[in-house]
Specification:
Immunoglobulin-like; 2 domains; 8 strands
């Protein structure tokens, strides 16, 4: 007697059909969930999803107070507040740094000029050290004195005040910076 076995061709068709049905159901469920999430995002208003006290972005023109705050922030970025005894004018800022082997004095000038000069005087008590004048170098949007690197062998230990004077376009500006040499 012969036992009839299902043909392998029918079995292959049945398995393939089952895999396709399962994949189709999975894709359908995924697409349905995505469309529901998109619909809920577009239907909800931004203010309804925020908690009380949480600010929103205003697309209205800025108020006078907002414009003034922006101008103040810009001015403070261009002319940052000085620290450690440094002084500055509206257009000149000086910084002095001790590097271990020298004192570096650098400046920024808010005007974009290329013709002029800068002088440096270092003072500690009654001791005054004057360095040679250097030129002004124009950079993108501002200028700088070409700078000074004073070897510490020319200065004694202690707190020095660096006074930078710039002269350009019939204008003179002064800024100071304080540096400590151990």
């Amino acid at each position: 007697m012969k036992i009839a076995h299902p043909s392998s061709k029918k079995r292959l068709i049945f398995i393939s059909l089952a895999v396709l049905v399962i994949a189709g159901v999975g894709i359908g469920v995924y697409a349905l969930r995505q469309s529901q999430q998109t619909a809920s995002i577009t239907k909800s208003s931004p203010s309804s999803s925020l908690q009380p006290g949480v600010s929103t972005v205003s697309l209205n023109p800025p108020t006078d107070a907002e414009v003034q705050a922006g101008q103040d922030a810009k001015a403070q970025t261009v002319n940052p507040p000085s620290s450690s005894g440094d002084t500055q004018t509206n257009d000149l800022n000086a910084v002095a740094n001790y590097t271990g082997t020298s004192v570096q004095v650098r400046t920024t000038i808010s005007a974009n000029v290329s013709d002029g000069s800068c002088s440096l005087t270092l003072t500690k008590g009654s001791t005054v050290v004057t360095k040679a004048n250097v030129g002004i170098q124009a950079l993108s949007g501002y200028s700088t004195c070409k700078g000074w690197d004073i070897p510490v062998s020319e200065l004694s230990s202690g707190t020095w005040t660096a006074k930078v004077t710039t002269s350009y376009q019939s204008k003179t500006s002064v800024a100071t910076a304080v540096v400590a040499i151990p």
